[in-house]
Amino acid sequence: MVSFENVTKSFNSRETGRKAFRALDNISYSVPSGVITGIIGRSGAGKSTLVRLVNGLERPSEGRVIVDGTDVAALDEVALRSVRRSIGMIFQHFNLLSSRTVYDNVAMPLEIAGMGKQDIKKRIEPLIDLVGLSERTRHYPAQLSGGQKQRVGIARALASEPKLLLSDEATSALDPETTQQILGLLKTINRDLGLTVLLITHEMEVVKAVTSRVAVMDKGQIVESGRTFDVFTAPRNETTRSMLAALPGGSLPDWIGRQVIADPKPGCNALIRLRFFGKTADQPLVSRLMTVLGSPVNIIAGTVDEIAGEPYGTLYVAYSADPAVMRKADQFYAQTGLNAEVVGYVA
Fold first, then answer.
1. Residues 72, 148: contact at Cβ < 8 Å?
2. 115 secondary structure, DSSP code
3. Cα separation, 344 vs 265, whole angstroms
4. What is the C-alpha separation between 282 and 296, in angstroms, rounded?
């Protein structure tokens, strides 16, 4: 649906007029049709610049941005307006007109396009119902909660029947409960309408909850990408690992982290991080590990979660660092496929 081909974007210095800042650095990446793809990174990573290239609000300094087979940067303003009608956009701060009702805000793109009132009504009323605001059609933005305002923004973005929906930090201004409601709505839209969604965010929880694929950005580059489940369960890049550590259960509790040492000492325990997914997700492997080792296994911390609809768990355990015990454990992990990593050692 969207393809970035060796895309670089530089901005000129106001003082010298020369290119002083490279926001995007030689990015090549494809967004598949019909799925929700997340672009995640810290502030300043280049996420918003990337999405602005998709709808032609910015043009690349080098490379091409292809949307549904069309090179966006090669278009003049007239042709670009036509392409933008096939691209919906939802924003962090809603961008609703305070003087227009819910209905009128959603209808605005169609009015601008010259559609007749009856045709607008046929198009708009099902969308307002889809986002759950049929009882607030005649309300004004000041009468709505933040989540309701974002629902209006989503309905407005869908009014022109786009093939692609861009979401730029659309849940950042919302509380956690409302965020989950909006993410559930995006999943419904993706499933029922078959809409391709490109979701820009700095929140790993958002990516985990709603995306099928993810690309991680850092300093203007995509440093890691793939299936969301694969990236979350086996991150290869340090930026990804650092961002995942902020998730619940992503890192050791502080009280145990302060006790960890790098090298074993006589009589100490090995601290092990176990990851459960795939065929290991629903098996009683910890009880079997205790039996195999023949020595105590202390459960330190853990969490069970779902990533892109697939079960995933992390468990920190400690057991004797005696070489014979460690060899038994390694053999058990090899036989069962359980993902295990020595984090350090504790007394």
1. no
2. -
3. 11
4. 22
Which letter does DSSP use for residue 261 in this model?
A: B
Show Cβ contacts of residue 332 under 8 Å, excluding neighbours closer than 6 positions: 288, 289, 292, 293, 338
Q: Are the C-beta atoms of 146 and 90 separated by less than 8 Å?
A: no
The 10 Å Cβ neighbour count of residue 10 is 16
C-alpha to C-alpha distance for 179 and 202, rounded to whole angstroms = 14
As a whole number of Å, the end-to-end CA separation of the chain is 54
3-state SS record for 18-73: CEEEEEEEEEEEEECCCCEEEEECCCCCCHHHHHHHHCCCCCCCEEEEEECCEEHH
Q: Are 274 and 262 within 8 A, CB to CB? A: no
* pTM > 0.85: no
Segment among 12-16, 125-129, 144-148 with least mean pLDDT: 12-16
User: What is the rounded distance in angstroms from the CA atom of residue 252 to the CA atom of residue 342?
Assistant: 13
Q: Tokens in use for 272?
A: 């092990």
At 342 the three-state DSSP class reads strand
Residue bearing tokens 């610049």: 49
- 263-267, 274-278, 318-322: the lowest-pLDDT one: 274-278
Model pLDDT for residues 214-228, shown as the tens digit of each residue: 999 999 999 999 999
Which domains, and CATH codes, for the chain?
2-244 (3.40.50.300), 254-346 (3.30.70.260)
What is the overall mean pLDDT for the chain?
91
Contact call for residues 44 and 37 (beta carbons, < 8 A): no
Nearest to 239 by CA among 225, 252, 253: 225
Closest CA to 91 of 181, 184, 153, 160: 153
Token pair, residue 243, equals 């961002």
CB–CB of 239/223 below 8 Å?
Answer: yes
Strand order in the sheet with 196-201: 87-91, 164-168, 196-201, 36-40, 213-218, 221-227
Q: Amino acid identity, residue 163? A: K
